[in-house]
Each structure stands twice: as structure tokens, then as C-alpha cells.
Amino acid sequence: MQEDDILDLVGDAVIVFAGSGEIRLWNASAARLYGLTADQAIGRNLHDLLSGHHLFGIAALMEILAAKGRWEGEMRRTAADGRVITVELVWTLRPSGEIVEVGRDLAELSQLEQDTRAAAHRYRNIFQAMAASFWELDFSAVRRMIGGLLASGITDLRTYFEEHPEWIDAALKSTRVVDVNDATLRLFGASSRDDLLDRDIAFAWPMESRGLYAEALMAAVERRDKLASETVLTALDGRRIEALFTVCWPTEHQARGNVLVGVIDVTERVAAQAQLEQTRADFAHASRVATLGELTASIAHEVNQPLTAIAIGGETALRWLSRPAPDLGEVRDLASRIVADAQRAADIISRIRDMARNRAPVHAPLSVAGVMDEAMAFMAGELRYRNIMMHLDLDAGLPQVLCDRIQIQQVIANLVINASQAMTEAATVRPKVWITGATSGSLVTIAVSDNGPGLPDSGAERLFQGFVSTKRGGLGIGLSICRSIVEAHGGSITARNRPDGGACFEFTLRAGAAA
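^ that's the sequence the OP posted. Answer follows.
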């Protein structure tokens, strides 16, 4: 018995076709399903003959087949008598390059009803037993909307979604709830399934989160099988839900339009994280205030200089104005110097106020050089007060970093103060602090070095532990706060002794505005 004769005994439609679409084999079941004999089909283009239609197009399916060697899914085709039928297909790629298709009419699958019910029962048990919120959603209308966009020639769907939020609104209102589990009723404040079934999901998606819905649609278009991201959803009573949102796009059943969505409530974790960030910010603020206390002498000296100059300038101006014929040009120049000294004092106080202020961290893309210059302006008085030389050496073209300006300046100030105090206690000859900045891959490395006594032999790692200090009367929280700040910025901080003497503290920050 020939291969063709054997295939005629198979209940499923079996078609063999070339990559170009040319039909090579057509069994008896295919003839019954599509109303065309083998003589009428063989040699014709399969996709043209049956007007095959799939949301992503035949070419996209051929790409999947070439990559994986197999494709499963559903497709609409037109039989010889004009009927449009939906067939379930399996394509398998042969080593010869030919493709074997096995297909069946979905309308003729009633004999599988018993197995389907058993599978549905298993699915229902799993669906209901999970503690997470599960939704079964009907996306078929949205798929047709996407198909309409593609058919109209729109290829950049991501840009289209961004520029047409009204389209996303319409898609949300076209996404229907098929089923939910009991966990969903509790999480979203529904008294029964009737509150949610067969309604759209727009109520659950606040404006701030609709970009994620658009990304979920892009995941389907780009044939990603799943997407997971944290977002904010809304309960029926308007309550905000911090949630981990997941959606699964099963590629073998994409044409049916039903998808499974999971929602895990992370509100408590997000609140705990926010509380941790607030505690970290409070500790950082306390550390800055303690640092300002240590700088009292140098701050007083810094502020006293312009105030003394203002007082002397004012007295001199009064004397000059008392002359029988005052030189107004000299008085004008003196008044300008008084104004400059007043501005200098105001700048010093402004920097102190910034460091002392307690406010939430604000991460923004900033220039490393600008942040360092401001930090050095703040530390200049302390370094002059202790007669310490300062040198700043940053590589040209350092990228921006996403950081909180005050907190990173706090790290620099803490490291510089530690170095200056250590060198003063050790009576270091010609004490010097220098700061370097360099790029390594996606990181910017900042190093604060000195030529002082170096770090103790007990281990540099202990210095970053809370309440460990090498200074007499020190609280031991400064370096711990520095580590907390740097790690909150996605970086790390280390300490070591320099080979030629002195200590070196290095910390990293992620480069780029999307750090």
C-alpha cells in the first residue's frame, strides 16, 4: 500500500506543501473538509487556494516554523462551497523543506467533549485553589482591532499606542471578563462573580497604568508568551492595589482570544518598601545633621569671613561718606564688594540649609562633575580650616548618573570629612585629599583617596557596619549610611589601603538616565 493510500485512511486532513505554498499531497480527509479533490488541489498554492487568514499573517507563521520546526494554532479558511471554517492546524517542517500539515475542523470536535470536560474540571480546581487573583479574559475583539490597524498599513504599533490613548481606552472597554476566581472577588471587592463577569476591565486600569496594558498587547503582537510587571490597579470601590500583573499568551491558541491573567497583591510589600526608604532617608538626614555638628568650627569660620568683610566695608564706606568731598566712585566699588560678601555668606548658608533639610530623595539624571563641584564648594571651608589640599580629577565626558544630588553629595562629604579628620589626628605632613572619577562599562566609579594613616588592620568591611567607628566619640553610622545610599542607587562601595600609604574609598553609580 502506498503512502498516499495510507494517508487516505487518516481521519484528519493531511496536506504536504512546499515552502512556497505549492501543494504536493492532499489526502481524502482534506478533500472532504475543503470540498476539493486531490487533482484540483495538487500543484496549487495552498494559502491562495483556501484564502488562509491568521492575525499575524502567513509569513510570520513561516518564520516560527523555520525557527522551531513546528507550529500549532488555528486559522480561518474558505472551502470550495464558500464556507468559512476555522481549522486547528499542526505544521511540521521536514528535513527536505516540505511541510506536513495535519488539520481538523473545530466544528467537528464534539467527540472530544468528555475529555474537554475532564480537562476543564482540572483547570477549574487549579484556577480556584490558587491564592493569587486569576482572570480569564476574552481578547478576541481587541485582536480584531489590532488586525484592523495592521490591515490599514500601521506597522509601528508601539508608537501608535503611545500617540492614541483613546485607542487603548477602547481596547480596555472591549476586553471582557470571562471568569474570575474567588481570590479575585476578595481582592477587588466584588460581592459575587456577577459583579465582574461579562464586563469590561477599564475600571481596573487607572490612567497611570494603561501603558502596561499597551505593553501587554505588544507582547502578544511580538509573539512573547508572557509578560510580568508591577503596576497599580483599581478595585471596584476605587481602592488602589499595588500588584504584580502577569499575562500569558499561549501561542497554540492565540486565535481563540482567551488569555489568563494573574494578579498578586503586593500592597503590603510596597508599603514596607516605602517605609524602609523613609527610614533610610531619616537616617541619612540624621547623619547629615551630625556631620554639620562636626563642621561647626569650619562653618563658623567660613561665615565669619564674609561677615567681617561686610562690617569692615560698611565702616569704611561711612568714613568715606563723611569726607567734605566724598569720592562716590570709591564708595560705589566698596558697596559692590559688600554685596558680593553678603552673597558669599548667603551661598554658604544655602549649602548648609540644603544639607540639613529633610526631604524625600529625588532621583534625576545629573552631571557627575556638577555634583562633585557643589560637594567641593560645601567642603572647601572644612579643608581650608584644616589646611588640607584638595584635588578633583574627573575623566572627560563622564556620562550622567541617575541620583539624588544631596544624598550623593552627603556620601562625598562624609568620606572627605573622615579623611580630613584622620589626617589631622595623625598630624599628616602636607595632608591631601583627591577625588577621581572614571567610567567602566555601565558604571561610573568615584574614588576618594588621602595620604593619611590608612585603615585599621581589623578589616575594611567592618567600617560599613552600623555603630562601628575608628574616631573618638564617633557614632559609627556615617559609613553605614553611605553604603545604604550607594546601594539604594544601584551601586556598591568598598574601602582599601593605598600601596603608598593612605586610604581609598570607591563607590559606583550606574551611568545613564535609565539607570
